[in-house]
Amino acid sequence: MISFIGRSVIQKIITLFFVSIVSFLIIHIAPGKPSQVDPMNPKFTPEVVERFQKEFHLNKPLHVQYFYFYRDLFTGETVSWKDNQSVLKKIWERFLNSLP
After folding, report:
1. Which long-range contacts (CB under 8 A, 24 or more apart) does 47-50 make?
2. What letter would DSSP give residue 84?
3. What's phi and psi for 79, nearest 5 deg?
4. What confidence tens digit (pLDDT) does each residue in 82-92 have?
5. Mean pLDDT of 48-69
6. Spatial contact of 44 and 50, defined as CB atoms under 8 Å apart
7. Mean pLDDT of 37-54
8. b/e for 26-57, b at 16 or more Cβ within 10 A?
9. pLDDT at 34
10. Averaged over 51-63, what is the pLDDT?
């Protein structure tokens, strides 16, 4: 029984790891750049794009960005690219709305 639970946990960790790689790569393979969240916004100047790239480490190689992604994920420092709010806060708000 313990070996079954151990195998199951390891399989789930491996699956989540590969899902995170695929989701990370989809963001970077998609047309456009991740730093251009809202390119039609007139306030989106080249200086803002540069600051955004530096803040979210988008000016670094992909493998370094991936490690920053995991670091932020495990420390709870992930923020939304669109409105710069904490992702955990946004999930919590939606979670509370989904309760009966």
Report:
1. none
2. -
3. -130, 150
4. 777 888 888 88
5. 85
6. no
7. 76
8. eeeeeeeeebeeeeeeeeeeeeebeebbeebb
9. 62
10. 84
- Claim: this prediction has a pTM higher than 0.90: no
What is the identity of the amino acid at 57? H
3-state helix, strand, coil in the chain (%, to 5): 65, 0, 35
Number of folded domains that form the chain: 1
Closest to 38 measured CA to CA, from 84, 72, 94: 84
Residue 20 CA to chain centroid, in angstroms? 9
For residue 67, give its domain range. Answer: 2-98
Place of tokens 């790891």: 17
Kindly give, in sequence order, each residue whose CB lies less than 8 Å from that of residue 50, ignoring residues fewer than 6 positions away. none
Q: Which residues contact 28 (CB under 8 A, 6 or more apart)?
A: 34, 62
